[in-house]
């Protein structure tokens, strides 16, 4: 297809993915989840710490369609308490989490965003110009969250798989829909896949082993996993869970499958707020001052 653009033209080349990747399960079993995580590890590892593509605006600076600055997501934070009340009316299990969770997710949203998208690094660098170089290095080590290119919408509906020959072997994954691709923590894609696309109970049974496999996959694609440890991945993964819970509640009423997501987010935030609600600055200070493994206590 040729698209005229004044004196110049653009070309779009398309191919039928279904020929080589004919399978598109609506829910992923362990075999297909592992294939999807291998694909992600390849993408993330290949772009690890290479910020050129989103710093020069070829991609979004912040990937993911539910990132807080996109499509009016920030104003939606004000709807969280109403959405929570409506959700509790239809899902009684949410009542045991108390009434503060919407406020906690809203108050922590900016602090979590800064960590996942590396903005805290820039803030520290700017502050560090007024500090000694030794103190600056110490501050930066507490903030660093490696950035990569993320798809921003990595879910079963956008994934296709090959069929193992003669029923043996493992499927190979292919992905579509890169509308929201950009910079961010690798865990944003991982969380979105694992919390939206797996067969029932697979995540609760296999979460640790799936994360292990993804992390090892990063090592196979150029990431120094001695520097980016399994605990580092766990920290980012848990921050991304809180971020995704924020989106799920701000975007509308919850469904029954969201209960475990809200429970997990509440437990993680309790490391900072002990289950009560503190202000935005307190969350920012907590995420800025705690040791880098603070969010990975359970790993």
Could you walk me through the main structural features you see in this protein, from its secondary elements to its overall organization?
The protein is 50% helix and 7% strand. By secondary structure, the chain is mainly alpha-helical. The chain has one domain: Aminoglycoside 3'-phosphotransferase, Chain: A, domain 2. The strands form three sheets. Strands 1-2 form a two-stranded antiparallel sheet. A two-stranded antiparallel ribbon has the order 3-6. About 8% of the residues have low confidence.
CA distance, first residue to last residue: 50 Å
- Give the CA-based shape: globular
The count of β-strands is 6
* Alpha plus pi helix count: 12
**Could you name the CATH class?**
Alpha Beta
CATH fold node name: Aminoglycoside 3'-phosphotransferase, Chain: A, domain 2
């Amino acid at each position: 297809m040729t698209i005229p653009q004044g004196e110049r033209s653009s070309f779009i080349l398309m191919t039928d993915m279904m020929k080589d990747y004919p399978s598109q399960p609506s829910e992923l079993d362990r075999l297909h989840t592992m294939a999807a995580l291998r694909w992600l590890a390849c993408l993330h590892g290949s772009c690890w710490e290479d910020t050129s593509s989103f710093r020069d605006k070829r991609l979004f600076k912040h990937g993911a369609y539910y990132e807080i600055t996109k499509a009016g997501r920030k104003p939606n934070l004000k709807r969280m308490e109403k959405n929570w009340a409506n959700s509790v009316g239809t899902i009684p299990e949410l009542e045991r989490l108390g009434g503060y969770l919407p406020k906690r997710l809203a108050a922590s949203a900016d602090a979590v965003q800064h960590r996942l998208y590396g903005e805290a690094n820039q803030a520290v660098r700017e502050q560090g110009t007024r500090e000694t170089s030794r103190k600056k290095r110490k501050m930066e080590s507490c903030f660093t969250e490696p950035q990569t290119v993320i798809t921003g919408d990595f879910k079963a509906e956008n994934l296709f798989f090959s069929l193992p020959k003669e029923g043996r072997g493992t499927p190979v994954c292919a992905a579509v829909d890169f509308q929201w691709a950009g910079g961010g923590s690798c865990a944003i894609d991982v969380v979105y896949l694992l919390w939206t696309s797996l067969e029932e109970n697979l995540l609760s049974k296999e979460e640790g082993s799936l994360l292990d496999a993804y992390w090892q996959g990063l090592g196979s694609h150029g990431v120094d996993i001695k520097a980016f440890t399994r605990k580092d991945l766990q920290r980012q993964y848990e921050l991304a869970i809180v971020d995704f819970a924020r989106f799920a509640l701000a975007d509308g009423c919850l469904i029954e499958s969201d209960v475990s997501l809200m429970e997990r987010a509440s437990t993680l935030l309790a490391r900072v707020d002990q289950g009560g609600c503190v202000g935005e600055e307190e969350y920012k200070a907590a995420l800025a001052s705690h040791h880098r493994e603070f969010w990975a206590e359970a790993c």
